[in-house]
Amino acid sequence: MNDIINLVTKVSDWLWGVPIISLLVLSGIFLTIKLGFFQFRYPIYIFKQTFGSIFKKPKGEGDISPRQALTSALSSTVGAANIIGVPAAIMFGGPGAIFWMWVIAIIGMAIKFSESVLAVHYREKNDAGEFVGGPVYYISKGLRWKWLATWFAFALMIELIPSIMVQGNAVSSAVRETFNGNTLITGIVVAILVGIIVFGGLKRIAKVTEIVVPGMALVYVGAGIVIVLMNFSEIPNVLSLIFSYAFEPMAAFGGFAGAAVAETIRWGFARGLYSNEAGLGTAPIAHAAAQTDHPVRQGFWAVIGIVIDTLIICSTTAFVVLSSGVWTADGAMDDPAALTTIAFREYFGYTGSLLVTISLIFFVLSTIIVIIFYGSRQAEYLFGLTAGKIMKAVYIVSIVIGAIGGAQMIWNFLDLMLAMILIPNMIAVLLLSGEVKRLTTEFFTSEKYYKKDIAEEEAS
């Protein structure tokens, strides 16, 4: 059995190295060019149509507001990776990795935009009268490849079981270490709370995430900015480190072991791609339920998801770690994941480490809530509404099993299962890129959408 686990680990480590990073980078570049560099040409318009329209009544049909769709999608991406993944990228790839994280985030916008445009374009209503969409629908309706849609739905439905176990374990471990809490009791309490929310349906999930995600993000980012401002004189040095060592190797310095340029690029790309889940096909499931008058308009909200997740939250963590100097302290390489907590503790004492822990707990809780929704939608697609409810129950039980450290052997298969989801989704997005191009051209040339928005803006 150990031989099988070792083989699976080796295969998944290889897949999530050069092959998948190359697939996502090249796909992002291809889509950016095909869509006419829209994220570079219309940034102000995109911000006005998203952040600028938060308090306006949404246009078109849908079950939840565009803002709620965004916060639901962000719930599955904003989490441990933003807090503990970024310092790991800095320690293994050097400060220059942050530059490449920014580059791939901007390129990855084209992937996330395309996924969400397709999700809204090919969405339909289920037996309960709710809008449903995502990879399974644009694969089956757009490509007419029912077999690939079934593959994606089944792989995501199954993959989420160990994924939820990992999240449950993260919550129980954080509670145990910070509050000396019992892992079993933590697991049961979390399972009950999550159950109340997820069985309340999509609208209840959306209401919870639109409060939790922005609230915790503001608290975490706000505290991070305070630390950066306390080290204001270090900002020019931090920017110099990020930009200069993006293109040249960095020698060992204090607790930092040094990094070659290839490692810098790899770690930067990996952190940028993994933090916002561009290409994984999960966020489009949330965006498909949004009220919108055109698929492209909702695609802009998906782009803003990358801005918040990678360019704001991950960058905050990076500036905290670099400006505070914890990355060069003796022993920093021993536990890179703890560097954010160490930095917050240095500046805010016990309250600082408490803030990081509580942020982590809330981010993970919101992640569990939304990925259970994603998984139940796949079961519903495959077997009907009842199957979706049964899978919700299975996922909730998985929280308790994960909290007490159960099924750790399955965790080795997690990355491999994620690859089984990403690959069919990216095949579909690339093959349907012509449809994304058509819809994007339609939006920006029609008198009903972009031109109308600009005319109204000029008239006001």
Would you give an account of this structure?
This protein has a single domain, classed as Hydantoin permease, CATH 1.10.4160. 75% of the residues lie in helices and 1% in strands. The protein has 21 helices and two strands. It has helices at 2-15, 18-34, 38-41, 43-49, 66-77, 80-93, 97-121, 135-143, 146-179, 183-198, 202-230, 235-244, 261-276, 283-287, 295-324, 339-348, 350-383, 385-403, 414-431, 433-445, 450-459, and strands spanning 124-125, 131-132. It has a two-stranded antiparallel ribbon with strand order 1-2. α5 (66-77) crosses α11 (202-230) and α6 (80-93) runs antiparallel to α13. The N and C termini lie far apart (68 Å). Its main location: membrane. It is a multi-pass membrane protein. It comes from Exiguobacterium sp. (strain ATCC BAA-1283 / AT1b).
Topology of helices and strands:
Elements: H1 2-15, H2 18-34, H3 38-41, H4 43-49, H5 66-77, H6 80-93, H7 97-121, E1 124-125, E2 131-132, H8 135-143, H9 146-179, H10 183-198, H11 202-230, H12 235-244, H13 261-276, H14 283-287, H15 295-324, H16 339-348, H17 350-383, H18 385-403, H19 414-431, H20 433-445, H21 450-459
Antiparallel strand pairs: 1-2
Helix pairs in contact: 2-7, 2-13, 2-19, 5-11, 5-15, 5-17, 6-13, 6-15, 7-13, 7-15, 8-9, 9-10, 9-17, 9-18, 9-19, 10-17, 10-18, 11-15, 11-17, 15-16, 16-17, 17-18
InterPro entries: Na/Ala_symport
Keywords: Cell membrane, Membrane, Symport, Transmembrane, Transmembrane helix, Transport
Organism: Exiguobacterium sp. (strain ATCC BAA-1283 / AT1b)
